[in-house]
Amino acid sequence: METIRVSKSGSGDYTSVQAAINSIPVGRTEETHLIIEAGVYKEKLQIHKPHLRLYGKGEVRLVYDDYALKLGSDGTPMGTNASCSTHITGDDIRVEHIIFENTAGPGSIVGQAVALYLDADQAVFRNCTFLAAQDTLYLAKPKEEKLNTSGRNYFEHCRIAGDVDFIFGSATAYFEECEIISLDRNMEINGFISAAATPEDKKAGFIFHKCRLISDAAADSVYLGRPWRDYARTVFIDCWMGGHIRREGWNDWGKSSVNDTVQYAEYGSVGPGAAPGERISWSKQLEQNMKDNFSLEAVFGGDIAWTR
């Protein structure tokens, strides 16, 4: 195991996070620990090496400000994926006490502006924060092939803030006791928390367990989710929901055909936004025995040692 220290003050091994990542030999199979000292690191990060452990010491912010409508070097808009502040594809990564942020601004002006793009397996984030507006947390592009490689992601005690489709993608992701913050756009529809693109052959997409859904937005103005792809699967288990959550809960994105293919469900929702009797007819309120199908162990097939 190697430990690398990053400090803007120059007291560490490197002053930039990317330089520290680049120093790791290609093909290393042992863990590398990066200790990142407090500071704002304005870097467009590419993290493609596996077996990393990133630990923030104090308030560490990984920040950039690209956005989908920004023109790239070829004169065309860079698009959603290229807008990300941090791009991770290295498997077996653990991240703790780090803020990922895209400061480009509201989607009405800049379009999508991703804080973190993550397409990796066995990725764990603890006590991290993800800040942006439209499309904050991008959990892997849709995989259109039948057999896919969408990864397994685990988020524990994290804060995720955004407005339109701000948790989206094709991964199987489990959110444990996270704070989900919907920003106020001062619009009749302030946004959509999730936009899953779950592949057809996956049994689980996004699972929110004991999370708190909060917002300053108007009552009845935010949807729990809408389907980016036809087999979107999103489930809320024992979550507290603020009054900003719309009574019907879910939106079909104008594609009525998905009413028979998506899996949108809840169990044990509480708070002013919990309205089990008013949800759309094609979502489900789970029974106790069905709830157990969405435990951490069930979602990851019993293979949960990597989440610890």
From TrEMBL:
<dbReference type="InterPro" id="IPR000070">
    <property type="entry name" value="Pectinesterase_cat"/>
</dbReference>
<dbReference type="Pfam" id="PF01095">
    <property type="entry name" value="Pectinesterase"/>
</dbReference>
<dbReference type="InterPro" id="IPR011050">
    <property type="entry name" value="Pectin_lyase_fold/virulence"/>
</dbReference>
<comment type="similarity">
    <text>Belongs to the pectinesterase family.</text>
</comment>
<dbReference type="InterPro" id="IPR033131">
    <property type="entry name" value="Pectinesterase_Asp_AS"/>
</dbReference>
<feature type="domain" description="Pectinesterase catalytic">
    <location>
        <begin position="4"/>
        <end position="293"/>
    </location>
</feature>
<dbReference type="InterPro" id="IPR012334">
    <property type="entry name" value="Pectin_lyas_fold"/>
</dbReference>
<keyword id="KW-0378">Hydrolase</keyword>
<comment type="pathway">
    <text>Glycan metabolism; pectin degradation; 2-dehydro-3-deoxy-D-gluconate from pectin: step 1/5.</text>
</comment>
<protein>
    <recommendedName>
        <fullName>Pectinesterase</fullName>
        <ecNumber>3.1.1.11</ecNumber>
    </recommendedName>
</protein>
<feature type="active site">
    <location>
        <position position="165"/>
    </location>
</feature>
<keyword id="KW-0063">Aspartyl esterase</keyword>
